[in-house]
Amino acid sequence: MNLIIMGAPGSGKGTQATQICKKHNLPHISTGDLLRKNIADGTDLGKKAKAYMDAGKLVPDDLVIALIKARFEEPDCKNGFLLDGFPRNSAQADVLGGIVEIDKAIYLDVDLGKIADRMAGRRVCPACGYSTSVDLAKDSKCKECGAALIIRDDDRRDVVENRLKVYSEQAAPLVEYYKAKGVLVTVDGNRSIDDVNKQIEDALK
Ligand code: AMP
After folding, report:
1. Suppose 11 and one of 84, 108, 121, 192 were both cysteines; which one would form an S-S bond, judging by CB atoms 3.0 to 4.6 Å apart?
2. Whose CA is nearest to atom 11 of ligand 1?
3. Which pTM value belongs to this model?
4. From the CB of 118, is ligand 1 less than 6 Å away?
C-alpha cells in the first residue's frame, strides 16, 4: 500500500503516521526526519538544508527528491510506504507520480488558527523521532526510548508562522491535486488522536 499523509505543520501527521505504519507494517518516510538526520550526521546535504529549515522555508526540490529516490531503493519499501511531509508542492508531486502510484492520500483537515498553540507545546525525541505534547508527556523523557524530549528549532513561534504561510501557498493545493486523482481521504484532524486514527483506518479498509 503506497500512502501519503498530508496536513499543516502541527496537524498531528507524525503521530498518526506512526500508528498507521505500526498497524500496516509500512516504513514511515518523513522527509523532515531524513533531513534532520542529515543535519545531525553533518552530511553535505544536511549542511545545505539547515539554513532553509531554520527559516521555515522549503529545502530546494532537487535535494529532497534525491533523498526520497534513494529512500525508495531500500528493501523495506518493496511492499509500500507512508510518505509524511512529501510531496510539499506540485513539482514534487509530479516527480513522485512518475516514480510510483499512490493508493491513498490522507488529508488531516485542521483549524489553522489552533496550530500555532499546538506547535508551541510540541516536544520531540531527538533520538527516535517520537513526538508528543507538553500536556501529554508524563515527564520530560521519551516514552519510547527514554531520551530527553526537546523543542525543535523550527517550532519557535516566529518560524511556525512562516511554515504555515509556506504550507498554505504550496502544500494546501495538493489536496485538490489528489482529489482530482480520486485518491484523497479527508479526515477531521481537530478530533482526538484515537478518533482521527479511527477515521483513517475506516477509510483504509
Ligand atoms: P517537517 O518535519 O515535515 O515539518 O519538515 C521540517 C522542515 O524540513 C520543513 O519546514 C522544510 O524546511 C523541510 N522539508 C521537509 N520536507 C520537505 C519537502 N518535501 N520539501 C522541501 N522541504 C522539506
Report:
1. 108
2. 58
3. 0.85
4. no
